[in-house]
Amino acid sequence: MNALTASAAIASGRVLLANVRQRSLVEAKVRALVVAGFILFFGFAALARIAQLGFFEGSPERRSLAEALLPPRGEITDRNGVPLARAFPAYALWYNPKAFGENGTPLVKSPEEVAKALVAIFPDADYNDLLRRLKSDKPSYLRQRVMPEDANRIFALGEPALEFPRENQRYYPQGSLGAHVLGYVDSEGHGHVGMEQVLEKQLLDPARRGKPVALSIDMRAQGALEDELGRGMLETEAKGAAGIVLDVDTGEIVALASLPSFNPNRSDQALNNLVFNKVTNQVYELGSTFKPLSIAAAIDAGVVTDLSVRYPSDKPLAIGGFHIRDSHSFGASLNVPEALIHSSNIVTAQVADKLGGPGLKKTMAALGMNERPYIELPARGFPLWPRGTNKNGDWARITTMTVSYGHGIAVTPLHLAAAYAAMVNGGIWRPATLFKREPTQIPEGRRVYKASTSARMRQLLRMIVVDGTGKSANASGYRVGGKTGSAEKPGGKGGYNRTSLVATFAAAFPMDKPRYVVIAMLDEPKGTAATSYQRTAAWNAAPIVGRVVPRIGPFLGVVPDDTRDIDISDLSPLVGNGDGE
């Protein structure tokens, strides 16, 4: 190659290199313009969205750290701050039949195998119910509260259709204790039956759900009451039981139990008839527990001024074709203290007859016996209130007599508790409450009995426990006073079923300065070896109170003292010993 040729080749290479450089610069500029265009586009889009939010949708909600930490549902505690209901994050077990698509088989193993495996993990689960759900093409909860270790065991089954959504659950640390007071929360987060339903708005309100709601319940008293009622049910083979502990001065309910109970942690179980509250929603003829209320009305009205006056008691009392009888003969005559000690229907009816229907009816109405019980719970039974016989609504003579000893009128155990509180606290009736009350929040109430009448009734109630039908409730050092009641349940054709009783003991303690009313009731108890084959309240309900009082007294501020008692020396000479109900 000569010099001219070499020079031409070099010049040609330089031209090509220049052209490559030029094309690269052009491509770089185009790319930069494209990128800049995208940046401008997205920048304008972002600015437009910001403008839209600012001008049309307002500013985003601001939440403080404290608000972000609030529980999804407020906490409920007892009067001492013990947690009764709280929210916490947990796993649920969800069955998703579409896990493999619309046409896929939802389970790797057979439904029977999976159901059997789940029962092995959850022994309390219902195999047939699980099998039904696993064979269904509808998604559903198989379990609403699953511990992490159980979730791991389910995961090991290798079933993609079994899912574990993380949810906020309602947890009741005390289990079934106080279930009828609390109620439960369903899978949708709604409260039912008890205070969960009553407090629904407050527990979900962001402004209030951060502060726990304190109830009047004391879980120590609640546990003792449920335990002893449950023991009484087992000993007597009763179909149910109910009980209440009520502060006589404030109206606060310290314990409230209805058995059989339910576990609010299992909302599927809570949906059955166990949620029915026998204390506030079921009305009963409570029998002879009404006798002190009627005698107090007669003393208050001045009808009974001399407790030594005797009334004939040896023959049934015939009124308009009806005959009022006692369980057995107590002798030719009884005075009022003896009538209460022996639980005489005949004498109580005669005293009520002297008082008259209007007087007894007025007292019963003042005690709230003609309206639903005063309590925050949604389930409140309406009493069976006797009808009048004229335009003034006056009771017939026989009605007045039967009501005086607790027949022909049906109320809830809560009605009875509030009435006994008024009878022993100086004569003031106050509405019951499940909220803890400060001293400044105690309602004034209404006067039903004179203070002097209340003082006399405290003596008489104490005598019933010392010398009469309530001996089994006589807890040493606690000065218990009270009255038994054994009422036959209404049967067909307007009569009574002699084989079905409601056995009740209504009590207060200590009688020298009453603090609490205690009611224990057994529904259809049977005579068993534990009760010497007796079915009446003296043998089954009174012993329950006798065991409850020593258990709850010390932590409720009532210390046993065998050196103290209410003075009944002016009444003791009027009575002899005996037993009745």
From TrEMBL:
Enzyme type, top EC level: transferase
Record key words, sorted: Carboxypeptidase, Glycosyltransferase, Hydrolase, Membrane, Protease, Transferase, Transmembrane, Transmembrane helix
SUPFAM superfamilies for the chain: beta-lactamase/transpeptidase-like (SSF56601), Penicillin binding protein dimerisation domain (SSF56519)
Known EC number: 2.4.1.129
Domain Penicillin-binding protein transpeptidase: 244-537
Gene3D superfamilies registered for this protein in UniProt: 3.30.450.330, DD-peptidase/beta-lactamase superfamily, Penicillin-binding protein 2a (Domain 2)
A Pfam family: Transpeptidase
Gene Ontology MF: a single term: penicillin binding
Domain Penicillin-binding protein dimerisation span(s) in chain numbering: 71-188
Transmembrane feature ranges: 33-56
Record GO cellular component, one term: plasma membrane
Protein name per the record: Peptidoglycan glycosyltransferase
Species whose genome carries this gene: Novosphingobium subterraneum
